[in-house]
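Continued from yesterday's entry.
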Amino acid sequence: MFDLSFLSMLPSLPMTLIVMTIMMIFFWLGVKFKHSQTVSGKVSEDAGLGPVEGSLLGLLALMLSFTFSLSNSRYDSRIKIVVEEANDIGTAILRADLYPDSIRTPLRAEFQKYVEARVQYFEAGRDLVKVREALDSATAIQNRIWKIVSTAGQDKDHFHRTSQMMPALNAMIDVTTTRLSLAVAKVPDLILYLLFMLCWTSAFMMGYSKGSKNDLVITVIFAIMIGITIFTIVDLDRPRSGVINMDTVNKNISALRAMFK
């Protein structure tokens, strides 16, 4: 259900610090390699990589832009789907009032349990066991709600009421599948690995070209800015944890509790 790859299990901040540390190591390797080349007389001290370095840094900028765009668009989609789910559940709860009390009372009781299950789904965070339990609980409640409504629909006295409830109930159930799909849709590990390789190769190139001029400060600033960008990309891609989360938008579902007071 959820990606259990090494990158997905590694928190955003340690991942960023590892990338930055390796960048500094590659910068140092570039400096040492340039020094060995200079000492052996194969290249002059002022020799650099010129167009190669510029092209690689341009490719790195393009890759960062592409990955950030990919991560941000999925974050926006997750926000929209949570708002849509809250609206769909709210509509279904309101339409339960169309039925007489003999049906309305047990139906609203199941809807109240369903809201709690969906709140627990988000509050489970990165605990996959609790996430699975919340999903199973919500599915069981959906089945009970569907049974109540479908049984009522077989009575001609409730046919018109059920014909209005069914579209809302279908939307409420379908949106959970969409939300789950967006939850597991991550930036592919291959893209992140490629991004990391570009960062490390760029650091090596800078060490080779600039190392003789002792541009360590510039390289540290470069590594920090790259690290901040990578942290933002990874954090956006993990709505259940990190600095950039979905706590605020998920309050739309928590607010549905007020409909049962």
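--- second protein ---
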Amino acid sequence: MTSADCLKYLERINYTGSTSSSVEVLTKLQQLHLLNVPFENLDIHTGKKIELENTYDKIVNNHRGGFCYELNGLFFQLLTAIGFEAKLVSARAYNNKLQTFGPEFDHMAIVASIENQNYLVDVGFGEFTYSPLKLELDLLQADRAGKFMIKQYDATYLTVSKVDGNGSIPEYIFTQTRRQLNDFAVMCHYHQTNSLSHFTQKRLCSIVTGKGRITISGNILKKTENGSVIEISLTDEVEFNKALWDYFNVKL
């Protein structure tokens, strides 16, 4: 990614200021990314194949969002281009219905290293952490999205879970093994085409806001603001496309 590409990407997420490799900068980058780039699977439902080599054009030039392989893949490229030490890692998302984890490369995340401390970075998991998580076991970490903890899952994997008054719910397990973008190609294709993938079930577009989150799931628009939730049915494609533009600045 060239310096000009980086500048345009930073403009896309409304970032200004230092790009030094610090926790403060990493946190601001992640938060602004979540506030400006939606998590969405809309191309899957319009029949347009997602090509990871076209992600920059889609997200930056065409003002779209994407799912994990696109969002975290591109954010990783930005981080390394501006000088962060980072790597892509494979994660396996938890399926609450089946109470099991998905296959390897089911999800893509990022591990960044700053002053000998690793951080789990993720802008592509929908409703997840708002800030990077320090990769320290059994440490309860809180941000506006909730409380999270990373624990040792087994000899190979770590697990990141959301913690509340009822206990903890796993989000995914992951290793810190360095991966390449093309390692995720098979699962990226699977999630676009297989009827068993939750991404093929219904259209989704979701973004963090200053006071909560706005999500379109199927034909339901859900606005969460300061803990209150409003749901609106989108009765046709005209209303659906209008909501995409009004709330996400997305035009298909």
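The mean pLDDT is 96. Residues 23-36 form the longest helix (14 residues). Will compare against the first tomorrow.
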